[in-house]
Specification:
By secondary structure, the chain is of the alpha/beta class. The chain folds into 3 domains: about 5-90, MurE/MurF, N-terminal domain (Udp-n-acetylmuramoylalanyl-d-glutamate--2,6- Diaminopimelate Ligase, Chain: A, domain 1), CATH 3.40.1390.10; about 95-310, Hexapeptide repeat proteins (UDP N-Acetylglucosamine Acyltransferase, domain 1), CATH 2.160.10.10; about 315-344.
Amino acid sequence: MKKSLQEIAQFLGGRVAGDGEVLIGGLATLDDAGEGQLTFLANPKYAAKVATTKASAVLMGEGGNPHGKNAIFHPNPYLAFAKLLTLFYTAPAVPQGVMPGAFVAEGAKLGADVSVYPGASVGAGAVIGDRVTLHPGVVIYPGVVIGDDVTLHANVSVRERCRIGNRVTIHDGTVIGSDGFGYAPDGKAYYKIPQIGIVVIEDDVEIGSNCVIDRAALEATRIRRGTKIDNLVQIAHNVVIGEDCIIVSQVGISGSTQIGNHVTLGGQVGVAGHIKIGENVMIGAKSGVAGNVEPNQVLSGIPVMPHREWLRSAGLVPRLPEFRKTLSALEKRVAELEQELAGK
């Protein structure tokens, strides 16, 4: 597929500078692009590479220097490039139906244009929407409800009665609705608390590989619309995550915590249970959140503190051996002075 630069600009809502009739057949990086390809500049630190790229055109932000090359100017070139990747390289799925080797229980309902691959299993009473793809090894427990345009990749499990909205993508090996970690002390032993709630995944959520989202003890663990979750994330029972959040890899969120809209949790952030994190909060990687967090903050550290304060504190850590040596010398000098004063 080839499109003129002008056609691409119209698709993106951008502005052409140079030859709008030049044909573009693919996309590539500034370093690797060649003739007939479009590249992009999103980070100003790489602006010098525009002068040397062999691409036929460059997608860049307003005010950028195309160095005489054909260009599309766009207010958000990174987003525009992502849309072009979809346009050029994402082929629409061709429905496969229920393929040999798949199992669909009696009483399950399948929508139009579904694909159920060999080894996938759909339990009794499950309701599957239109244009849903269940890849090999997917297990849908009884009573699950899945909306339209959902893709579950290999070996995803969705436990009993959980609900998944529209346009959701869940990657390989993730488990939705496993039992929450709840046990009541019984002398020296522990009595398992039945987890009778569910997980609700709202529309336009994407969940990475090998994540676990536990079912609620009574009501619902909920991931709200538009949130994106990276690989290897653990979300405990009764957690509620707001809309358009970014949860990066290896985050752990303890039970009954509530997270507001548009929150970003960096890699390996640990969040204690039964707390609230306000909207528009960003928490840096490897931080520990032990208490409530007010909205509209950037925090880091263990325990979390304002990010700039944490940077100053972290800068002192390499100097601790020097400080210890200085402190020991001062202690020794104070002791000598005290002896001198005592002898007078």
